[in-house]
Amino acid sequence: MISFKAVTSLFVWIGIMCWVSFLSAQVSLVIDGESTNAILKKKNYVLLTMTKPFYRTNLSDAIIRIDVSKDEPRGQFRAGIITLAWTGQEDDGEFIKVLSHELGHYMDIFRLISDSQKRDPSAIFYSISWKTANERLREAKVNDFVSGYALTNQYEDFAETFTFYIFHNRTFLEKSKKNSILAEKYKFMKERVFIKGEFQWTEYAIDPKGIGSYLWDTTKIRISLKKYLFSLG
Question: Does domain 4-230 have CATH number 3.40.390?
């Protein structure tokens, strides 16, 4: 006999796949190369991610390419287009996180824009740790950033913070209680980006306790892909 839990999971999955079918017509997703089963699986992961209300509302008009010929760079945002290498990631969880990192750039550049009455929201975030696009404030410390890669420039700081907030919100919140600069960055994301309470208290890491005080790249923290996908409903 099929268990109630199995039936429930089946209906949830059917519902998600219905969204995938709908979004296939809404999201500009291009596969550069031959569409093998492995490629199509990654395509579905992209579309599944875009079912999340936050992505659907703010980022569904992003142009996303999966480049079959590349394994580096894993992700790139240039001229308004997100390009993902189909290999180069350790697993599909990392692929999804690289996508989110690049969507963070898209949010930063194309969604958080100023008008005649208000300051550019992104500039408020940058000013927490940056004097110019590539020059950190003199008092900025390594622990004021969610990763080593976030120290590269103000744009990578934003995208890494954006990604850490989505996948490791609970850990981010705990870190922010011990660091006033991280607290400012967490508050910015909560109040100016994820304004409807999206991703509050998430923690998709397979081993949350293994997230150290310093890491180079937030996308390298391994996540439970199953847990993430079933949270998208």
Answer: yes
